[in-house]
Write the structure tokens for this entry.
Amino acid sequence: VSTQSTGGGYGAPPSGGYGAPPSGGYGAPQPYGAPQPYGAPQPYGAPQPYGAPQPYGAPQPYGAPQPYGAPPGSTPFGAPPPGSSPYGAPPGSSPYGAPPPGSSPYGAPPPGSSPYGAPPPGSTPYGAPPPGSSPYGAPPPGSSPYGAPPGSTPYGAPPHGTPYGAPPGSTPHAAPPPSTTTVTTTTTIPIVFMPTYAYPTCDPVSDANKLYRSMKGLGTDDSTLIHIMTHRSKAQLQSIANEYVRIHHHTLEKDIKGDTSGNYQRLLCDLATPVVPYKLQNLRSAIEGIGTRENILIDILSQSSNAEILEFKRLWPKVVDAVNSDTSFNFKKTLHQLLRAQRQEITVIDDARAIAVSQEIYLAGQARVGTDDSTFIDIFTTYSPYFLARVDYHYTRAHNKGIVAAISHETSGYYKDLLIALTKPPDIYFADRLKAATKILGTDDWGLIYTFCVHDRAQLKHIAQVYQQRGHGHLARDIEKDTSGNYRKTLLSLLD
């Protein structure tokens, strides 16, 4: 039976053919990723525009709106029911292993508590000193900075007991070990004070008898004499001298003078004299003798404390008039200011004030024609050598030379020497003084004896160290070269 077919074979187009494209054509394909016109076929694998119908039967992207005509609320095949967690996700949308919502992370301390290892709230951090105490390594509250002299008193100052060089009958301060330098710091500025020697205790009666036997009869046991006289403090030697008179009915000084001579004799007798009376004795000799020994005035008055100068005035009320009558001009004015005993002896250095004073010195000297001596005298007799050292630092930075150079340029003679002496603390001053005493033609024995008799053993060792630090050489060797006999042995015994 033949059957007339109304169309082509299976898969053939209808008899009329597929419809022709629109007159304008479907349009050129868009670049990859660009949305194609609605209804236009998308390139294979390209994402379909949001909201565009997907090919029939193709699953819609998860969460995308369903095409028109799709059953409401339908989900893609294999997707979990609406409103439920994705397959495999934990209930409540918390990641597996995470703590419940609102709780602390696992391993963290409970809310409101301190982190593990931290001290309880309100307590001191671990390793910190207890509240109200000093930082570790700091001195106890109310005490002096480490290395500062007892009570933070400057060299020669009088608070809390007997000042350095006070007359006998007073109790000396506790002293640091021999050959130690006392150092304190104000901001970043170091201040080095003279140390104090702690002499061991002695038996005055026993020492008095040993000294008597060393000088009794023919010959002198100089070894015993030198050892006792150089290893006892001024106060101890005074006690020994008192016992000597009580037991032997004449003075120790008389027997020393009878058995010794020359500089050896002078040195032993001066060692037994308390510092303030000894300084005053030399001050009177410098003024009342034939001519005035200006160097002695400088040695004594530039390096004596306010307390010592006040004691000079108490023991010799006419000292000011005597100095004024024997000196003149700016040298006299400077000494007069020192005899007022009002020079600052403080350990705190105001750096801003040091800068201002350095400028005052410049304006009074280098910046003008002639010198404003009143300003020079006022500055150098008002401020301590420790403060003036800081002034020198700022002056050097600003003008490429120090205040000693400024003094030397603007002044002369003993006036210049005195101002320069006032810029030096005792250790530096006496180190330089000893060099001057040993380098001149013929030794300045007065300078040697005076320096060794106004300082204790620790101070002399410290001065010897400064002597070497300042490039003067080795003090003991210089003394050994310039002196001889028992005089030399006594000086060297004070340095050993």
